[in-house]
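Try this one yourself first.
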């Protein structure tokens, strides 16, 4: 235990039925303290009672006498009045527990009034939060020079949710997390990202490029025979029983494939069924109607262009969904690969895996009907059962209120950056039991790049200043609004110059 603590920040006082085992207040001696700093006081058995400053208030006895202030403030002589000598600050501390002999336990007896308050030491913070030397380095503990290094099994093992409003840094934080996972020397896992806005494709040009595969979804071919019966019924918007016609026919085709026969594409399959007199009329009509609907998904084929055999330890697979405009098509792609990966993982054909789903509220919505949420079923299934098979999901969303409660409630670790929407905050409060009211109230005022970590990976909620990503220097900086407008004008001018040159081949740029 530290024998010579730093200069005290203040002294414990009796205020509002405190000190007790949950809170204490102290008069501030050091005006440089900040809300969110961790502090301690020595208890009656020389243990360290550990807590966080949750509020700071500033008082001035002179300004409490508002009538006198109103009468005297009009005189210039007030400028020389020693008002500052009447000032004092009060800090409110929420107690988390006590530290004695390197053990952290619940606080059973409050600190005494008059006890000095000290800033928590680096050793104390590492001990309390159980930061690990070889853990995932996500940044610094806010207002403390302490690296936040978390056990990656606890951080992602029971699913992870990253929630924040647009522009608050959720994709940046996710990039930092991916860097850490790709940098693991041992216990390497496979990481897959379903990227709707090309937030992560830069990894293919970074110093991690040798371990990155970017799959452009517009070039994907998915084998229609790999669709499950529930996927078929949801895509076709028919009852599960009605999809059995197609599922049975697909089973017949799979058998033929095993026997070495070639499998037709959907167009060929349609004409084959149409001309098959052995199929009764009702069955034929149901099959043709179903196949006509599947043909709308141009990427459904008799082949598969990207195999799950590419999922190997230490590899990052990014599905670039940017060029797919139709949300239902995006959902089907996500559903297709998550289903295949989950089946493969249960048979241990692929390594333990983390699936990162951007815009998760679009892929796993709470209220939409099944035909408008094609990937919700498998995401909810993995959320409930995935940890048994070391298959974790990371749900990223700026609208948690629209995200499936089933999936979100299964995310045992939450990283929450700035959110101001009260409905989203209420939804987080209901689904994340580990977040207390003091932490929740601080979320709307967080700076960009600061996040709250709570749940399985945290002894109790704490704020982290996210570190700079290592791959940043190898990628182009984000384009500004002005740059985008300038580039668009330049493209228009180039097109016009080309058109003018075509219409008048004798003209020159000078003439234009």
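Now uncover the answer:
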């Amino acid at each position: 235990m530290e024998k010579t603590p730093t200069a005290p920040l203040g002294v414990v006082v009796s205020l509002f039925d405190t000190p007790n085992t949950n809170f204490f207040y102290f008069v501030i001696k050091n005006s440089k303290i900040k809300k969110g700093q961790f502090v301690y006081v020595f208890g009656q058995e020389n243990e360290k009672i550990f807590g966080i400053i949750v509020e700071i208030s500033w008082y001035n006895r002179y300004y409490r006498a508002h009538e006198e202030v109103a009468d005297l403030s009009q005189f210039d002589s007030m400028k020389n009045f020693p008002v500052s000598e009447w000032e004092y600050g009060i800090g409110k501390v929420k107690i988390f527990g006590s530290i004695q002999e390197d053990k952290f336990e619940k606080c059973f007896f409050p600190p005494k009034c008059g006890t000095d308050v000290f800033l928590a030491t680096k050793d104390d913070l590492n001990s309390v939060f159980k930061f690990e030397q070889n853990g995932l380095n996500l940044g610094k503990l806010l207002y403390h020079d302490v690296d936040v290094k978390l056990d990656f099994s606890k951080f992602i093992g029971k699913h992870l949710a990253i929630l924040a409003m647009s522009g608050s840094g959720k994709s940046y934080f996710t990039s930092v997390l991916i860097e850490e996972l790709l940098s693991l020397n041992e216990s390497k896992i496979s990481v897959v990202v379903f990227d709707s806005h090309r937030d992560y494709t830069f990894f293919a040009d970074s110093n991690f490029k040798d371990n990155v595969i970017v799959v452009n979804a517009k070039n994907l071919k998915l084998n229609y025979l790999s669709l499950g019966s529930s996927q078929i019924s949801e895509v076709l918007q028919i009852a599960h029983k009605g999809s059995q016609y197609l599922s049975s026919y697909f089973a017949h085709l799979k058998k033929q494939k095993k026997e070495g026969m070639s499998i037709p594409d959907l167009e060929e399959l349609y004409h084959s069924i149409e001309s098959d007199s052995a199929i009764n009329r009702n069955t034929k009509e149901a099959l043709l109607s179903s196949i006509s609907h599947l043909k709308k998904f141009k990427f459904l084929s008799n082949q598969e262009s990207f195999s799950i055999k590419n999922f190997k330890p230490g590899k990052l697979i990014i599905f670039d969904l940017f060029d797919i405009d139709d949300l239902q098509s995006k959902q089907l792609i996500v559903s297709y690969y998550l289903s295949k990966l989950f089946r493969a993982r249960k048979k241990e054909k692929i390594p333990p895996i983390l699936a990162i789903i951007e815009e998760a509220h679009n892929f796993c919505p709470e209220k939409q009907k099944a035909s408008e949420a094609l990937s919700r079923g498998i995401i909810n299934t993995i959320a409930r059962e995935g940890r048994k098979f070391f298959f974790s999901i990371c749900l990223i969303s700026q609208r948690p209120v629209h995200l499936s409660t089933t999936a979100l409630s299964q995310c045992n670790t939450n990283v929450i950056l700035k959110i101001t929407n009260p409905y989203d905050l209420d939804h987080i409060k209901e689904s994340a039991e580990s977040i207390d009211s003091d932490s929740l109230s601080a979320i709307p005022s967080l700076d960009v790049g600061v996040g709250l970590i709570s749940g399985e990976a945290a002894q109790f909620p704490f704020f982290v200043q996210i570190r700079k990503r290592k791959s940043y220097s190898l990628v182009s900086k984000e384009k500004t609004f002005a740059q985008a407008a300038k580039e668009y004008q330049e493209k228009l001018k180039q097109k016009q110059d080309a058109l003018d040159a075509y219409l008048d081949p004798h003209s020159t740029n000078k003439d234009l």
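Discussion: Residues 273 and 279 are 8 Å apart (CA to CA). The chain has a mean pLDDT of 88.
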